[in-house]
Amino acid sequence: QVQLVESGGGLVQPGGSLRLSCAASGFTVAYYAIGWFRQAPGKEREGVSCISASVGSTYYADSVKGRFTISGDNAKNTVYLQMNNLKPEDTAVYYCNAYRGVINYWGQGTQVTVSS
């Protein structure tokens, strides 16, 4: 059964850090482009970061460059999103996505709230 499970969200103060995990089962993340998206209340879902192990590339939205780092652990079939210097505008539900051609998998999301 194909599954993506996000974890690591929570409540953090501005300037704090969180590490999100996206654990995959039923397929191998190394053969897919894995992306993190987020959706804040009343806003559209937006792409945050993406990693493609097969081509050795990463992507970051301008709003998170220098603060977020995406990485993968093929042995654990998991992709991480390290988020540092968090800001209130980073508050959103964060979703993991796996993409390959016509195949597109989504996780259930994890809430990140940045507030003092």
Question: Outline of this structure?
Answer:
With 116 residues, the chain is mostly beta strands. It has strands at 3-7, 10-12, 18-25, 33-39, 46-52, 57-60, 68-73, 78-83, 92-100, 103-106, 110-114.
List descriptors:
mainly beta; seven-stranded mixed beta sheet
Q: Can you walk through the features of this model?
A:
Helix content is 0%, strand content 55%. Strands 2, 4, 5, 6, 9, 10 and 11 form a 7-stranded mixed beta sheet that branches. A 4-stranded antiparallel beta sheet has the order 1-3-8-7, with no helix packed on it. It is built from no helices and 11 strands. The chain is an all-beta fold. A hairpin with a 4-residue loop joins strand 5 and strand 6 (57-60). The model has no long low-confidence stretch (mean pLDDT 96). The protein has strands spanning 3-7, 10-12, 18-25, 33-39, 46-52, 57-60, 68-73, 78-83, 92-100, 103-106, 110-114.
Q: Mind summarizing the main beta sheet? A: 7 strands, mixed
**What general form does the structure show?**
globular
Distance between the termini: 40 Å
- Evaluate the radius of gyration: 13 Å
Helix and strand succession? EEEEEEEEEEE
Structural class: mainly beta
Which secondary structure elements does this structure contain, and how are they paired or packed?
Layout: E1 3-7, E2 10-12, E3 18-25, E4 33-39, E5 46-52, E6 57-60, E7 68-73, E8 78-83, E9 92-100, E10 103-106, E11 110-114
Parallel strand pairs: 2-11
Antiparallel strand pairs: 1-3, 3-8, 4-5, 4-9, 5-6, 7-8, 9-10, 9-11
